[in-house]
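re: that chain from earlier
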Amino acid sequence: MSEAEIRSLQKIKGGSYVITLPRWWVERTGVKKGQKIVVVSDPIGLRLIPQSLRKLPEVELIREDFTHIRHIRYVVFSYYMQGVNKITILSKDGFSPDERRELRRLRGELLGADIVEDTNNRISLKFITSVSEEAIHDRIARMAKFAYEVHEDTLQSMRERNLILAGEIVERIEEIMR
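^ sequence. v structure.
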């Protein structure tokens, strides 16, 4: 249910700005006086999320359930707009080079999106709303895991003499260098 109201922005002593929240929103979300509310900036405006509801869901999509990569793009974008934390796309037969490129391109279009897992049959996008949300240690550990997975897939492509997989790996290395 989408409701809209016009509110006035007020400036308070010290330079901060204040806006009142609609009663219907406070009652619907169950927010209580003094409770923290997370303000997330995205391309179309601000989203307000009560901190108690901050545990965002994770979604898994199966590549074979979709007839075209455009459909996956649409579903990923829809879940992103709903505020999910992570989307994992699985493919039992692996992704084509075009599908990988399209998913990487999509990552660049979504604010705060990062590819956190990229293997032959699995790509995970995580949506980060603030830098403090993710510790440096976690980011380094994820980069190391990413490099390990590329290494494993490289060995697999050499064993199987799979030039298509080798080409995909070259593209994935760019992700590590980001």
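Strands lie at 10-11, 17-18, 37-42, 45-50, 58-62, 86-90, 113-119, 122-127.
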